[in-house]
Amino acid sequence: MSTRGIIARSTGESTFAGRYHHWDSYPSGLGVALVELYRGHFKHDLTRMLQVLLDKHPAGWSTIVHKDFNLKPGYTNVGSRPDGMSIEEFQNQPLNRRPQCYCHGHRHEEGFLHDEKSDCGAEWAYVSDEEEKVLHVLDREKHEVSGEYHWQGVGRIDLDCEDSINWMTIECGENFERCSHYAWKHDLVPRTCNLATQTWLGNRSLEFHDAIAFIVAGKRYKATGSGGNSDYLRRTGKNFPSNTWVSSVVAGNGRRLELPVAIITSDGTYSPLQGVTWIYPPTKKTHGRETKVWGDK
């Protein structure tokens, strides 16, 4: 899924104007790319860099992350891949390695300037101050009371300072308050656990898809993460209770089984099937202990 952003130049106090950037616009993606471009390809010439990124490519960008600015920018349509060429081969072609803009190559869109009031779905903005040679990283947040979105500064980078940049703190926050990664990204849980950081912190409720195992008839089965709606599976001749979710699980001998474990409620949510216990992984709030949720006996 895309993470959208804006590459911009400062136009005054808390104002900016820039171009849309579609893919990998989080700080560890687009933020890193912008600093590397400034210090590398554009040789500390911020004005020239912004002229290329904003003025010469007014329709914005699909992505500049991990792209080669020694190649002329332009959009490459995957549909143009020659018959018989693999995706891997295609990705190594110069047309795919070039910066992907929306105004050259296979796309010729009209230019559009985004500012601090624009609603283009951007989650991040990178605002360059040409006089101070500073890159401001802004995060788009929703106000808890008003429900309105606003930009807040989460990072200030001196572009000519060679000190290392803690991109992960800029992206996720000192206490992971902005983090959208899996918890294993920060070594909070084993890599085998796919619990989201916000769920591990307790900022989000545990949900059915977070279950790591089920207890059925007194026996524990490991969840594989896959499954299906019983009403669909019944069409294939399998005799499962109607309106339930059937999970693929691993038995003690390594053999996979299909077991109904949840009732699908009228509002589309899930609750434990009678006699079934869901097992959730440990979280920060449970102090390393698993959580069990069971259906009515």
Walk me through the structure.
The chain is α+β, with helices and mostly antiparallel strands and 297 residues long. The protein is built from 7 helices and 15 strands. Strands 13-12-11-10-9-14-15 form a 7-stranded antiparallel β-sheet. Strands 5-2-1-6-7-8 form a 6-stranded mixed β-sheet, with helices on one face. Strand 7 (134-142) and strand 8 form a beta hairpin. The longest helix is centred in the first third of the chain and has 13 residues, at 27-39. The protein is elongated and about 70 Å long. It starts with a strand and ends with a strand. The mean pLDDT is 93.
Summarize the SSE layout with pairings.
Layout: E1 5-12, E2 15-21, H1 27-39, H2 46-55, E3 61-63, H3 87-91, H4 94-97, E4 100-101, E5 114-115, E6 124-129, E7 134-142, E8 149-158, H5 167-172, H6 197-201, E9 213-216, E10 219-229, H7 230-233, E11 244-250, E12 256-264, E13 270-272, E14 276-280, E15 291-294
Parallel strand pairs: 1-6
Antiparallel strand pairs: 1-2, 2-5, 3-4, 6-7, 7-8, 9-10, 9-14, 10-11, 11-12, 12-13, 14-15
